[in-house]
Amino acid sequence: YIDRKKEYEVILTEGKRIGRVNGLAVIGGGSAHSGILLPIEAEVVPGGKTADIVATGKLGEIAKEAVKNVSAIIMHYFGEDIKETRDIYVQFLQTYEGVEGDSASIAVATAIISALKHIPIKQEVAMTGSLSVRGEVLPVGGVSSKVEAAIDTGIKTIIVPKSNMQDIVVERVKLAKVEIVPVTSIEEVLEVALDWNGKKKLKEKIFNSKGKKRAS
Length: 216
Hints:
By secondary structure, this protein is an alpha/beta fold. It is 40% helix and 25% strand. It contains eight helices and eleven strands. The strands form three sheets. Strands 4-5-3-2-7-10-11 form a seven-stranded mixed β-sheet. A two-stranded antiparallel sheet has the order 1-6. Mean pLDDT is 83; it is low at 1-8 and 211-216.
């Protein structure tokens, strides 16, 4: 009972938090897989010596790849080389055996950017998607299972790669409980997931550089 209670305390589906995001993943393989909510926390502190990933196995590899990609994205938007000046800590608050794929990439990136720029993340939002070094959101597997898991946990908004929209096969009555937001870029993820109150200048900086990137 205590373990069960602890598990529920880890999951937040309302309010706002800096550096804390609800990712989505699948566990198990083949037709036996199921979706899970995967809370992730990031902290960014002055330093430049380490990118410390508190995760093992496949999750650790996913996080390392996401940290590498988000470093390039932050360099693009903010002109900051966080690899040289910051230490990045990423922790998966619940660890599961057999988490598949790199579908936590956009969640890890969102948590790091939130922590770096002190912009809160809306906890009623959950997300899945892979991330390229150019900030493009790429398709992932197991989307229907992830959407169902998010709905069952009480999430209100689910961010998915636009190219996965046709893969969502979930009962209509369940889908009516949530808003599903298709995205193609990390900018679109940040626009939906972050609480931009009082951060207008920062928001303009990110979204103005989008045009420059597309032109380059």
